[in-house]
Amino acid sequence: MQTRTLYDKLWDAHVVREDENGTALLYIDRHLIHEVTSPQAFEGLRLAHRNVWRINANIATADHNVPTTGLEQGITDPVAKIQVETLDTNCDEFGIQEFGMGDIRQGIVHVMGPEQGATLPGMTVVCGDSHTSTHGAFGALAHGIGTSEVEHVLATQCLIQRKSKNLLIDVSGPLSPGITAKDVVLAIIGEIGTAGGTGHAIEFAGEGIMSLSIEGRMTVCNMAIEAGARSGVIAVDEKTIDYFEGRPFAPKGEMWTQAVAAWKTLHSDAGAQFDRTVKIDGAKIKPQVTWGTSPEMVVTIDDKVPDPATENDSVKREGMIAALKYMGLAANTPITAIMLDKIFIGSCTNSRIEDLRAAAVVAKGKKVASNIKQALVVPGSGLIKAQAEAEGLDQIFIDAGFEWRSPGCSMCLAMNADRLEPGERCASTSNRNFEGRQGKGGRTHLVSPAMAAAAAIAGHFSHINKG
Amino acid sequence: MQAFSTFKGIVVPLDRANVDTDAIIPKQFLKSVKRSGFGPNLFDEWRYLDQGEPGIDNSKRPLNPDFVLNNPRYKGASILLARANFGCGSSREHAPWALEDFGFRVIIAPSFADIFFNNSFKNGLLPIVLDENIVDEYFSAENNAEINAETYELTVNLATQTITDPDGKVQHFEIDAFRKHCLLNGLDDIGLTLQHVQAIKSYEQKRKQQAPWLFT
Fold first, then answer.
1. Do B211 and A262 touch (CB under 8 A)?
2. How far apart are CA A423 and CA A421, in angstroms?
3. How high is the ipTM of this complex?
4. B119 with B29, same domain?
């Protein structure tokens, strides 16, 4: 039998039919829904008098708009309130299970899914959110879709797709001490660029990847989209199976045994062919910091802000000049000399329990520097918040001068009140440093949770081991 | 969806790479539960000098005179000439909705981000991928036309997959046959898929046997 990649296997298992025009109808096992990209899809169903194909395949939660503080007042922004209430109404009307505000299971959709075992190995997972790639971390084929496709999945449980190419990113190990999943994925994006994975499904492999926890692997796959790939996948191993055992939506008993047997086949065959392979030396990866307005504009903590004068490609050079102007940075400034205004620890990239633990280790017994106007810690779900509180992490953060918030997307995209003011500079554990992403005129530097905590304490970027 | 055939329009050059969907339509406008009305906030942070919010009167806001869409030369433009990796970032379909609502029907670039590319076709917006050198030539030609105070319009013919410039020079472009068919006929994907109800049900039957835990 022909050898297949993990992506090939996941694709093959979900093809309902192939059309002579080269497209395939792909079956979707799990559809995650949130308030921002779904209202127009439900409205479309109503207008066409269509039903939801398989109600149990859908799970919803509100995350993008929800406030992270003052929850007892509800949502004070009237426009956001309508959107969240519209999700509640739509879920009620169509019978879809929703973890709404006030439910301890509510959280960022990509944190909630795996935490509940609602997204599992071997599934096809889609959501109207580009960071759906997160769920590839445990051998699921997962990607973001637009609202028209949200409606398409609701109505048909399928998507019309064309198969992507296979790209292998092989990260050797071991990683250096203190290097996190975030540093690995930012280093990968720095290497292949933000369009490096366009048209491809990325498989992340090698000891540098497999040594990461499932949470860390989610951080890596989460940012596959930042490398241009709609999906990223990682093979299933024992860690994957351990992670899902006992989760509320995971299979139980005989069905669990059956599922585990199937999941153990979720890896690329030896000798499987990839269209492209990129090798990364994991031992050389250092703590990463972005300096510009695209995730590929990234250097290490030991570096300086790059000089556009050294770039030969004119479009790239103009891009660098524009980025430096927006970021208010001069070429050749040491990264450790960049002073910060705000700190954000959270987002679907870095708001899981191990992220909070990593930040708390750095913050413990220290104080946030006086030049930092605000340092936010926003857990990814109500359950993570409760877990962190049980471990005393909340008190470590509060004692150090951080604000301990309730779950949501928060300052990653600043749809709620958590945002940067024009000109403010933030060390953020989120995924996008685009212009205006965290608020108009706001300046975002992407880093790992430990690096963000170290920056909060120092007031500027700093080596994690120097505090 | 609006069917697409032959189309002639003014070209507006947006000369920067990696234009992301946050730039195309900033997050505060995503709070709408509607599909229309995003045009006035297309490229909001580049187009206006103040902070845009949903519900405010955009006609009274200060315009950024340096932003290309505010140049009177491009009034009524419907073809956007862009650089590599256009539409990168989030999956928000509000980005093609905003472009379409503003009046764009065609975007020409050396490359597009996958999700944006896909979303465009669902909304009667045609993204055309051309070789970087050819895109460069269109940027130069548009720039020369501006210097000479001439209009610069392109004619896009989807059926023949051609772009014709003001001098009559014809450029061929590639497009997926299925997507072309859907755009030309204004077809609804859901309707097409629902022609295969039996195939979907058969797949579900088979899959339930192999992987019953997926159906609990």
1. yes
2. 6
3. 0.95
4. yes
